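To whoever is on call:

I kicked off a structure prediction for a single chain this morning and the downstream step that reads the tokens threw a length-mismatch warning. I double-checked the sequence; it's 383 residues and nothing unusual in it as far as I can see. Pasting both halves so you can look.
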Amino acid sequence: MQKFRRIPQHAALALLLVWPGAAGAELQSEPIPNVVTLSVPYPQTYAMVHDFAFGSLIDSSFSLVDIETRRFKGMLSAGQFATLNHSVARGEFYVGETIHSRGVRGERGDFVAVYDFANLALQADIELPPRRANTVVNLGNSAVTADDRFLLVFNQNPGTSVTVIDLDSRAVASEIPAPGCALVYPDEAGGFVMLCGDGRLLAVTLDEAGTEAGRWSSEPFNDIDNDPLSEKAAKVGGAWHFVSYGGEVQPIDVSGDTPRILGRWWLTSAEERAANWRPAGWHWTAGHDSGRLWVGMTPDGYEGSHKDPAPEAWLFDTGSGERLARFELRVPGLSFAATRGEEPKLLAVNIAGQLDIYDGSTGEWLRAVGSLGETPFMVHAIQ
């Protein structure tokens, strides 16, 4: 075996002195500030991953990544229990956050921070009533209306209401009381619907000023005591698809003036239900306007297994209720989203803290994006 000899210090110094460029070569100073502008509109390959930061809840963040190139594009910082929404038409992100004047104590402040797409630069801070719901990552905590006019923020402190923000004036337009109802799901007409604790659906319409123009309530349809609908819904075309903890899909058509509670269908066969296949994950659904719905699934389910990571994702045709494919995930998944376009990709934040990218039709694993923070918990497709 060849042996390597240590070079004496004086010899090493001599090498440095005679090696061209070794001494005297200086790094060029970088200009400060050095801001790179992102191309707008974004490609369909951009996604935001939410690092909830369980170890330091007052300091969460959102990482913008390109799922095709696996390149990190930028980051938005946020306070505790943050939410993220965006408007492609306006080219803006909306980050809901709660802070305290002494970090973990002191006077509470609730805000929506507005950032632009091109520079991820702060455009406005909109102050809210100090009662926005502080919950672990939940897509239903806030939403942009279908006409991109208003941002809706769900409040719970302890009564429930919705703050409506005018995105033109960047100011609070109204606060709408919604006792016993929770979360916000936009309809197609510029209003929203909410799930209520008595098993009903509440629908609220808004006028041009962002104040309540009317409301409608359904008859009870959600079996709260036996198999309630989870709030982890996905919008497919003009209908929200809620899935019960047992695996039954409840579509709600919000394309018209009044919501329509449509017929239910099962994710599972009778044999699969006997084996306790159930939906699972943190946000276990993803939808696509072509009529496709992906749901994270786990076998041997039990009461509480809906929070378990999902080892599989199942793909369904929402028109027929037919299962189109069944994917075994590379690493069990927590939260799911789907990109747009004719060939959607299924995005899955996994339990290893990575973002997995799959072919949305075949389930073929394509690549993963890592280094997304301490506890990445949610993914948002940006389109």
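Update from on-call: the warning came from a stale cache, not from the record. Cleared it. Sanity check on the structure: The first helix runs from residue 9 to 18.
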